[in-house]
Amino acid sequence: MAAVNGTSAADANSQIHKKPRLYADPSPPLFTPSDILYEFSHHDPTVARINNGSFGSCPSSVISAQNELQIQWLRQPDDFYFNQLQPKILQSRTIIKDLINADHVDEVSIVDNATTAAAIVLQQIAWGFAEGKFNHGDAAVMLHYAYGAVKKSVEAYVTRAGGYVIEVPLPFPVNSVDEIVHEFRQALQRGKQNGRRVRLAVIDHVTSMPTVVIPVKELVAICREEGVDQVFVDAAHGIGCVDIDMKQIGADFYTSNLHKWYFCPPSVAFLYCKRSINNSDLHHPVVSHEYGNGLAIESGWIGTRDYSAQLVVPKVLEFINRFEGGINGIKKRNHECVVEMGQMLVEAWGTHLGCPPEMCSSMVMVGLPACLGISSDHDALNLRTCLREKFGVEVPIYYRSPKDGEDGGVTGYARISYHVYNKVDDYYKFRDAINQLVHNAVTCASLPIS
Amino acid sequence: MQHEYPRNGELTHRSFKKPKLSSEFITESDIRDEFSHHQPRVARINNGSFGSCPDSVLTAQRHWQLQFLRQPDAFYFNTLRDGITASREVIKGLINADHVDEVSLVDNATTAAAIVLQRIGRSFAEGKFQKNDTVLMLHCAFQAVKKSIQAYVTRAGGSVIEVRLPFPVNSEEQIISEFKKSIEDGKSNGRKIRLAIIDHITSMPSVVIPVKELVRICREEGIEQVFVDAAHAIGSVKVDVKEVGADFYVSNLHKWFFCPPSVAFLYCKKSTSSSDLHHPVVSHEYGNGLPIESAWIGTRDYSSQLVVPAVLEFVNRFEGGIDGIMKKNHDEVVKMGKMLAESWGTNLGSPPDMSAAMIMVGLPSRLCLNSEEDAVMLRSHLRDRYEVEVPIFHQASEDGEEGVRDKDGFITGYVRISHQVYNTLEDYEKLRDAINQLVEDGKTCKMLYTE
């Protein structure tokens, strides 16, 4: 597989034979297809579940491990609080540190999700404005395709505090990494106009809708060249989906959800904060007893709640290592299969992929037939509901407004995912559903409103 | 004198009572089954810290969790929001709020504090408040809340007044008088008090505060807003948010209301300013009102917020429903407190009618509990050697103040005992005997460090 995301194939390969230190020897046997079927037998069998990207998935053995931890807490919570909770969180953080090639476990905090991580990073930007460290009008740069929740967070914490927000328009469909780099450079120039400083760049590693793998290493380097204060990589889809190496990528902040592609239960994410930045100013917004003891410690206790999803990481590592090639084997196969399925679909429908194969991960955008008449976000949502309710297919749909001069082109894309539990039949089911809609001359205008 | 606990036979209109034959009430053996996952042999007399959850509610929770895992997209689009609204409706009824829009669900009181205080921080940053405008809190406010004030008020330029409440306390009048004095002191420097944070039931030491009276005083004194931190309230005292009259009121449902960890409600009285409250974890619903923002803060397990209707079913299996449970817990904890105080020759930290389902009981002075560290050490010792779980409070002696004495010296340590439906007499006898054993053996806290 071609090098993606700023890491070389050699780096990826060097991690293939990493085994967890938890095992003595020998290693347990690799999963068979029927093992995997069993592990995901709680998924609705009537649904072609080709949307791992939105909410992730969690195998039975990890759910069992989580239940066990929940019972331990309920059994004697005081004892668990005083004697078990923090060591177990530290254990999870240590595993993550190794997985992502961070220098020190202090750099790794565990939070609920990337949305929470964004609030943490953006809150310190808001303080920068409030405390006069930044000037009114200093800029934050983000991608136009940044996740909706992150955009709102930027509004809440940056715009409201007096910051100026610049969105980097990205072409879609996209044909090459150069297109993205070009737009990004231009946006940074805009950011620096009128003597403004660019205080923060928020860069997706894998955009959500439409999904494309962004050349983060290159963009981070450009940020350094152009004097951007801080770079925050939102890699909600990162771990388990693309190769991630904190030192290679070089960002100040990097967050990824572990419940999307890393088999953890809802919900758990890590936020990496490079030690060289002024960490003392990073705080979890839910302030508790540990305020001031460092973000990682603060995040380890934010009041009474269920922390069990944060504690199963060791068990997840065991699970992953029962796949051929571990997580790298899984990523490789997911990528190859999703490209294969994507190509099968575009051939069946006479459309095209939203990006070249080397710019996708375990998700890819697949053009939908123009005759479906997808002409708004509402249409996309209605089509998605129709696919779920009438055809038993779960897949998110993206509406892309036509550019000037474009006519009768593809305006709708499905974002298909491929994960270890998926089967070719899932995608045939989707193919056939769309073909049937086309055959029956159904358009979005005629669909019921969800 | 305000009676915060339900009196004999008093059923509130908020009980959602279904008429039941007495044969249908939950039995002692049912209760044992419901809490059979608790560690046996541990005298678990600390329901106050982390709460408890019966088996039938855990089962309901698991059902919600599996529904999400089975088909999360369908759950997100079709099920989640309605489920949260149903829980909010139940709570609105329980607390006598006017409108379900006033009820948001959050993880815990700590999160609610962050929501209220973040807004105070923004008001300073945006010039609505001036430097040194003030927030008033109780000296014994929960540590997490104090840190939140530091993070969002002090950092933003605000100042803080701490109200020192006497402990042990003898009457509500003592609290009211201290509170009035602190406000006077605060205002005497020309400072404007923007927010008062008042515990409904303090944590350590635990006392039921006459919140309705204190809120009234706040209004009289022109304090802009009042936030009642009632982490322990729901399921242990009557909660009527209109009667209390605060602007914000939060309580954890996983402490005394049988919910799994974790879920709390934050009540925000409708006003012009309530639209500027935001959940600090900003997601798609930003700007659509706090209840809607809080109902989606990114992918996570919302199941503990969805079981509230199932909890109501559980609670209504008890004679008198939640009111019956509250009364019994109160009567029992007072009885047990008195039993312990008598056996140890010590005191209660407050009169019975200033306690709910928890009460402070003085420890024998011979234990020489002289610091926070001693309290922690003794607590661990009781857990490890005697299988008793109970939090311990160190009462620092005030200069020039006469402390309470037992026959051997000043009482400087208190246990905070709780009573919840799963507790039995044996739990408290275990504690009684453990302390008596330590005293008999001539142990002081200092000696425990080397054991």
UniProtKB/TrEMBL annotation, chain A:
SUPFAM superfamilies: PLP-dependent transferases
Pfam family membership, one: Aminotran_5
Keyword DNA-binding: no
Disordered: annotated span: 1-27
Positions of the Aminotransferase class V domain: 86-279
Keywords recorded for this protein, A-Z: Pyridoxal phosphate
Polar residues bias spans: 1-15
UniProt xrefs under InterPro entries: Aminotrans_V_dom (IPR000192), PyrdxlP-dep_Trfase (IPR015424), PyrdxlP-dep_Trfase_major (IPR015421)
Protein name: Aminotransferase class V domain-containing protein
Organism, scientific name: Hibiscus trionum (Flower of an hour)
Automatic annotation (TrEMBL), chain B:
Keywords: Pyridoxal phosphate
Origin: domain of life: Eukaryota
Aminotransferase class V domain mapped to chain residues: 82-359
One Pfam family per UniProt: Aminotran_5
PANTHER family documented for this protein: L-CYSTEINE DESULFHYDRASE (PTHR43092:SF7)
Official protein name in the record: L-cysteine desulfhydrase
Organism of this sequence: Hibiscus trionum
Source taxonomy: Eukaryota, Viridiplantae, Streptophyta, Embryophyta, Tracheophyta
